[in-house]
Amino acid sequence: MRSAPARAAIALAVALTLAGCGTAAPVTSAPTDESPPTASQSSSTAGPTGTTSATASASTPASPSQPATQELPRGGTELFPRYRLFGYSGYPGAPGQGRLGIGSLDERMKEIEKRGQQWLGGRELMPVMELIAVTVHGSPGSDGMFRSRTDEAIIKKWYDAAVAHKALLLLNIQPGRADFIDEVKYFEKWLKHPNVGVALDPEWAVNKGQIPGRVYGSTSGKELDGVARYLSDLTEANNLPQKVMLFHQLHVNIIAKPKALKEHPGVVYINSVDGIGSPGAKIATYKRVIKTRPSYVHAGFKLFYEEDVATGGRLMTPKEVLKLKPQPEYILFE
Question: CATH number of the domain at 4-47+74-333, out of 2.30.110, 1.25.40, 3.20.20, 1.10.4030?
Answer without folding.
Answer: 3.20.20
